[in-house]
Amino acid sequence: MVADSKDSKISKLELFNLPGGPQAFELAAKFCYGANFEITTANVAQLRCAAEYLEMTEDYREENLIVKAETYLNEVVVKSLKKSMEVLCACETLPPIVEDLNIPSRCVEAIATNARKEQLLSGLTRLGSDDKSFELKNDCIDWWVGDLSVLRIDYYHRVISAMGKQGVRSDSITASIMLYAQSSLRNKTQVNEKPNPGVVEDDERRIVEVLVTLLPVEKSSCSSIVPSSFLFGLLRMAVMVNASTACRLELERRIGFQLQMVSLDDLLIPSTHTGDSLFDVDIVHRILINFVQKIEEQENEDPGYESEGHGDGASSQCSVLIVGRLVDEYLAEIAPDPYLNLQSFITLVELLPDYARVMDDGLYRAIDIYLKAHPLLTEHERKELCKFIDCQKLSQEAWNHAVQNDRLPVQMAVRVLYYVQLRLKDALSGSCGKGFLSQSMGVRVPSAAMLPRNNYATLRRENRELKLEISRMRVRLSELEREQLCMKRGLTDKTGDARTFFTMLSRGIGRIGIFSGQAGDKKPKSERRTQGLEGRKW
Fold first, then answer.
1. CA nearest 225: which of 252, 257, 269?
2. 277-336 pLDDT tens trace
3. Do residues 47 and 65 lie in contact, with contact meaning Cβ atoms separated by under 8 Å?
4. Dist CA 465 CA 471 (whole Å)
């Protein structure tokens, strides 16, 4: 540099933007004067960049600083997972010249390759051991999972992507992503106390969006690599930092595909819109749509019949029933919200198929809570809401409550009274619900002769509905048998008590007189005025 200068009497030389700063220059000077110093993982990247800047090549001296630094990188750093991570962390403070020298790229590939090698070696060690599979599963988390959390998000993105290509286990990648999210997003609640909250939020938005793209892909519709609680945590954070629409939709899709493993608390996502409902029901609605689409895809994947209790068909049926109970609990939780409009509530109610609920007690309870919290609903609006309740799928306790519930529309109350009287008639006649069973089956289960023989998907769907109908009828039959036994004992001991019980259940029917043509039944007096039963707390 002095020789190239036009001034032969130069006494001062300024080096601008020297990579590594004064520390790197001091080490380079020591190398030139033969002073002893050690190349380590903390300074090798600085020395390599400084040597490139100072043009310390073989043209001026054999085994110059560039060769020394490259030898250390190739023979020491890239062969060790830990040393590669240390050098990669040191590259974060260096200028873009470090990328031109491919030092970060070499460290990223070395980390991924060594991580894969360690997993293969640990797998071979486990195969030769006598430990049980359960103990081995708990020992599968690698030591490097937590160390990656110190990397900058762009370097972390490159490392995890390289690990996925190398075939590193998905559970290790998931554990690493979870730890990285906890360490980098844990101070989100103190954003307003930080000096530059806008810059911090932008950084956190980028972190959330990158972590979502790094989540392992599900190998099958039944697998759940990423815990649902972590997905909900990311979703809440994505809403708080206003992440991209694609990021939030991807999280909602993943949650919808494993909705049967979600808890009620996870679904209670606070709304961020001013003047809106307390909870974000739109997010839950989109999650439910993803779940229903997954179930429909599973039904169409295999057109043949699944064996009893096996296969995706049985698994999907169980998932639907679990989600049905979860949605009813969620509806009951959000129903008291005075700002929840009727259309949003109905949209959630009608989204699941009819076979998702073996009994409608949970749905009835949620609708009753909504009616109580919104007393200004018109008769037409209450009718539109209550039409989703199937009176035949209510338990005896729900029927007793509905008979006394003055919040229900008139038509709903009449339907409930009709089925109460029909059930009571079957119990008194000793049929144990056979007529009720045949009526329900006749309405819900189509004739097999009418089904197209080649439409296997339709046959599977009807077979599933038949199994669910049988489950409902078993529950109903057990209740009827218990009631019949109690009523027979009451009729044997005290006929007057039985007559009083019959009159109490028939009181709400008023002048309709459903059983007026039945032999042996007492006709109610036309002058008797119907009296409302005082409703007990549901």
1. 257
2. 899 999 999 999 999 999 888 877 655 444 444 455 567 788 899 999 999 999 999 999
3. yes
4. 10
Residues facing 270 on adjacent strands: 279
Please check whether residue 244 is in contact with residue 210, taking contact to mean a CB–CB distance below 8 angstroms. no
**Sign of the Cα pseudo-torsion (482, 485, 487, 489, in order):** negative
The candidate with the shortest Cα–Cα distance to 437, out of 467, 466, 463, 473, is 473
Q: Which residues contact 303 (CB under 8 A, 6 or more apart)?
A: 456, 457, 460
pLDDT digits (tens, 9 = 90+) for 228-277: 999 999 999 999 999 999 999 999 999 999 999 999 999 999 988 766 78
Q: Which of 112, 114, 92 is nearest to 104 (CA)?
A: 92
Q: Residues 484, 490, 492, 498: is their CA dihedral positive or negative?
A: negative
The angle that helices 197-214 and 170-185 make with each other, rounded to 10 degrees, is: 170
Q: What is the DSSP string of 279-345?
A: B-HHHHHHHHHHHHHHHHHHHHH--SPPPTT-HHHHHHHHHHHHHHHHHHHHHHHHTT-TT--HHHH
Q: Give dist(CA 305, CA 342) in Å, integer.
A: 40
Please answer whether residues 13 and 2 qualify as being in contact, where contact means their C-beta atoms are separated by less than 8 angstroms. yes
- Among left, alpha and beta (phi > 0; psi -120 to 50; other), residue 400 is alpha
Q: CA dist 458 to 274, 304, 309, 445, 477, Å?
A: 46, 10, 19, 12, 28
